[in-house]
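Tokens as discussed.
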């Protein structure tokens, strides 16, 4: 079976599977990639959760520089950020976000994390999608850059 991914424009990808072709945005391509990884795990008897795929995309915040996190946080709704932090339950992510916002917002987010009820799966997915789409938008504008152990400058 023929399988391929081709970048058409900055936020448009063409996916070929067999004789079918479909255009997707970057968020959908990233989500498809994670979902395919989960399908491989399912073949080995492990479990899969769509929400976990969204959370994995949201954790890409950890690949940003502190300046990138600050720019992203100013560009998104605080409630979306809170929902991601609640469902991700990731101390490193929470510390990175809280450490890169102003002191008032830092206190508010910390208090809300302790007091707020867990969002529904649907609300969490919508919030995470908005965050990740904004991250990809800022990256395509050259305002932020994802950094990992493979990032090198020559």
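Sequence:
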């Amino acid at each position: 079976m023929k399988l391929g991914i081709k970048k058409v424009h900055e936020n448009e990808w063409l996916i070929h599977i067999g004789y079918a072709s479909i255009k997707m945005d970057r968020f959908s391509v990233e989500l498809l990639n994670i979902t395919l990884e989960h399908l491989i795990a399912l073949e080995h008897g492990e479990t899969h959760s769509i929400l976990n795929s969204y959370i994995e995309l949201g954790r890409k915040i950890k690949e940003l520089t502190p300046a990138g996190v600050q720019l992203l946080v100013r560009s998104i709704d605080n409630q979306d950020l809170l929902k991601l932090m609640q469902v991700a339950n990731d101390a490193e992510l929470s510390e990175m976000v809280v450490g890169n916002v102003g002191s008032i917002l830092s206190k508010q987010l910390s208090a809300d994390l302790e007091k707020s009820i867990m969002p529904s799966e649907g609300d969490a997915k919508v919030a995470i999608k908005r965050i990740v789409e904004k991250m990809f938008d800022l990256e395509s504008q050259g305002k932020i850059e994802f950094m990992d152990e493979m990032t090198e400058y020559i």
